[in-house]
Amino acid sequence: MNLLLLIIACVAAFLGWACLALSQERHWQAVTSISSPPNVSLRRVGSFLIMLSGLLVLARDGLSFGVLFWPLLLGATALFLPAILAWRPSLLRPLASAFSAVRLQQSTASREHAYPRGNCKAEPRNRREWRKFAKQKR
Amino acid sequence: MPQITPQFRAAMDWVHSWLGVVLGAILFAVFWTGSLTVFSKEIDRWMIPELRLEERRQAISYDALIAKMPAAARTSDYINFVAPAERTPQLGFFYRAADGTFHDFTYDPATGQELSLTASHAASGFFYPFHHTFTIYWMDLGMWIVGFAALAMLILLVSGLFVHRKIFAEFFVFRPRRKAPRATLDLHNSTALFGLPFYFLITFSGLLTFAFYYLPWAVAEPYEGNTDALFAEAAGEYDPGERTGRPASLASVDAMKARAERLWSAQEGTRVEANIVRILNHGDETAVVYLRNTFPDDRVVLSEYVAVFDGATGKLIQNFSRPPISEVSGWIQGAHFMHVDHWPMRWLYFLAGLGGCVTIATGMLFWLRSREGRINRHSAGFRLVETLTIGGVTGIIAATGAFLAANRLLPSDATLGGIGRADLEVRVFLYVWLAAFIHAAVFRERAWAQQCLAIAALAVGAAALNWATTRSIPLPALASVDVAVAAIDVLLLLTAALATVATVKLRRLTPRSLAAIRAPAE
User: Which of A20, A25, A79, A95 to mutate to test the interface with B (most CBs of B within 10 A)?
Assistant: First the structure.
């Protein structure tokens, strides 16, 4: 039971951070290739999940431990997001599609056609692309 | 609210860079040894194999132990027992001899036999004091250096929030494929932000723990400068005074302990045990028995229950419990010591501590990378920061590896020039660290890869030596009592793997490829 609460708190904190990240335009675009942020308030859902993780931690560990444990848990779960957004943004696509299912499918298709783009906004994905990119710039 | 002007940011930037660059290596050392201290008891078990006892909760008769004490302890004015706990199943005992020297013993609580331990300071005896004193005891210089560094850390945390303009807007941003300085700065920002509450708490609580030491005047003033009176009132310390020389026998310590625990448990609502059993002026009519409970395992606040009994009659002289006013400072200190029985929290403390190491290392690295094009790479200042960064980051990690390897390699009776085995291990740590700085000064950026390779070799070597000398194989040991030891071996192998990957990646980064990465400007 205790372990289950801990796992749920971790998942809630991670999903909360993921929603908050997606609520920022640049990350929403990186994940979905759509430039406008979605209608549903990701920020509100994200904040709710973060708070929920806090409540679960407090329920599990009490106030004295909880106020120590919760910030640490938040920091540890947040750490995954910059890594995911930098290397595997597609991992967050299921979450993003939960907030706007239809538009996302179109965008995936258009993204595949559009790549590789020649402008400098696109991030080269590997070493070879970097070299090509650097050459173009020159 | 005053406007944050560019001038203000520039001023903060100035403070942030200077403090960071000057104290970065010191802060890294404090964070690194602090992170290791989170698992100090487990590292002790790794380094002193005789401590790998099975935990058995059983009643200990202090009366029987006192009866078996060495003869020199019988007239000691200071005898101390440390009760076994979950992470330290052994029973500690030390006394102060007539000449003022302390003598340490460790007993197996199951058999009552004295354990003959590998001579090593291990983590509790080296990493822990190094964390707050750098083991520089001359005029307490080390403590002042660490105190100043902690104060600087608080300034760095606050100034950093102003220096990095878009720090909250770019909360989740990490751009590993951009220019090296950009990626380094992203990593610096995100590790700093995600750990920010922890870094504030740990730095502040560290300072608070020694507040009486750093700033004794204000708190000592009501006691007219007599700090003993202060500690008697604030912490329940007790001074039995001088021995009178009239011998007296000691009443049953076990009975006193049982009575103290009954009193405390009734006050607290849950079972409270005495961790410290201390006998002052043993054998004299002024003898007292001092019982204390400091580190409860089920809450953060350090409890301070102290009961003092008259040695001859067994009468309760003083029953001290922490006054409510010190509940807050007790929580803050407890949050620093992390003594509680809460493994997820302990792991998060360890990871957050390492996160602090990453923040400090990337901060220094960013200083170097961002100035490479702007200032002369061969100037004395640049080279000094480069040396401090390499030696301060990979150097201390390699020194830790050497410390562990030396612990397994040195024969049990090793002495060199009058230095005992335990001190030799510490010398190995210090000389390897010093060598890392010299190596960094000579080989410059190539030293990164070379020192990473050294870390990998030392980590694998230490794990292999542990297996060779104690036959505890990581995997089967997981199921046995040696979970702690096995976990350290696994962590060592993980460190080796990471260091190997780092070596390979750094080797590929010749000056030419560095230029290629820098080419696509933002």
Answer: A79
